[in-house]
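Action item from last meeting closed. Structure (66 res):
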């Protein structure tokens, strides 16, 4: 309520170092993220209070330059 809307997902390695991240400034697409599951080149983005599941093709995510 008092914080600006901003959705963020962070990918970590086994040591806890950041590998990559997804950002949604203003939370226009996904309002909140609590977990992401990857299966068959698709990212399923969810939050325990959401009534929907966001779906993002992994090719879109992995085609970006790192």
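Sequence:
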């Amino acid at each position: 309520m008092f914080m600006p809307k901003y959705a963020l997902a962070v990918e970590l390695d086994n040591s806890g170092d950041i590998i990559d991240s997804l950002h949604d400034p203003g939370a226009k697409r996904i309002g909140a993220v609590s977990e992401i599951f990857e299966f068959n080149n698709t990212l399923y983005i969810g939050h325990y209070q959401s009534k929907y599941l966001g779906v993002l093709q992994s090719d879109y995510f992995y085609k970006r330059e790192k």
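Note appended to the action item: The longest strand covers residues 18-25.
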